[in-house]
Structure formats: structure tokens, C-alpha cells
Amino acid sequence: MSAEPSHPVPLRASDADREAVVAELQDAAADGRIDLDELGTRLEVALSARTLVELAPLTADLVPAVQPAQPLLLKGGMAGAVKGGSWRVPEQIRAYGGMGGVRIDFTRVECRLRVVEIEVDGQVGGVEIVVPDGWAVESDQVDPALAGLRDRTTPEKLPGSPLIRLTGTCGMGGVTVRHAKRGERRKLLRESR
């Protein structure tokens, strides 16, 4: 019989963990919840933290006292549904492909969330998700079902960019996650001028 350790070993903090805390602290300073001196002090600790235990107190008092927003619900129905352009990204999205499919386009949004959870059900029409370069996608919790999952994103995540966490099932229509295509990129470039 092996002896149980008397104290749990603190988990190591990753670069992503430190970056997420830095982003939350910067947001708190921008909102006026902490001043610049306190921001500097907390950033110094965050950047040198080795464990999650060291990071936790830095943002514990910054959690806003608001109820979480309702998930965004997108249903493809017979004609399909598209969420694109400039829109406020919620923490949770539920996308049901229906017969016409659902397309979610994040290329024109500003998103300060660390994680966006998307529950997909491809049904017959499928679900397509377009993310900017530098956004990471975690799709290992999606059931491929009949049509399967096509993840065409690159693994490189830019610091401070969101993680898209997918769950659910691909159904008969499938789920595709990708970056903007060449023509879409040209259109985005024209619009930004």
C-alpha cells in the first residue's frame, strides 16, 4: 500500500494560464476596478507565477457580480442560419444545423473572452464555424457521428486570443471549423481600409 501525500501538489501554471490572468487584469484596469499601480504589482506576480495557486488570488476579487448571459441559440431550420458581421460573442453558443445548416463567422468580432463554448449538433444541414487566424480550437469532445468533423484550423494560438471549445455531435451534416478562405480574406482587407 502506498501512502497518500499529506498535502496535494500544486499544479503548474502554463503560459496560457498566465496570459489569461494578464488579460483579465488588464480588463479590470480598463474598467477602473484596479488602478495602474495595483495593475503593475499584480502583473509582476502573474508573469513570475509557477503554479495555479499563485495565480488564483490575483483575480479572485475581480469576478463581476453578474449572472452569466444566456447562450446564443442558432437553429438552421429549413432555410439555414448565419451569424456574422460584427456581433457580441457570448460565453456559450448552441448551434443546431437543422436542414439548412448553421454558419458562425467570428472574423469581424472583437472577443475578450478566454474560452467560447460551442455545443454543436450538425443534424442534416451541418455547422460551419469560421475563426480568425490565431484562435485555437479544441474539438476532441465532439462525436463524429456519420458525417465527421473537419478541423482545418492551424494549431498556433496568439496570446490573448480565445479558445473555441467544441462539444456535441456532427450528425449527418457534419461540422467544419476553418479559417477564412482567400476570397474572404480579400473582402475583410477591403472592408478594413
From TrEMBL:
InterPro entries for this protein: DUF1707_SHOCT-like
DUF1707 domain span: 11-62
Pfam families in the cross-refs: DUF1707
Protein's recorded name: DUF1707 domain-containing protein
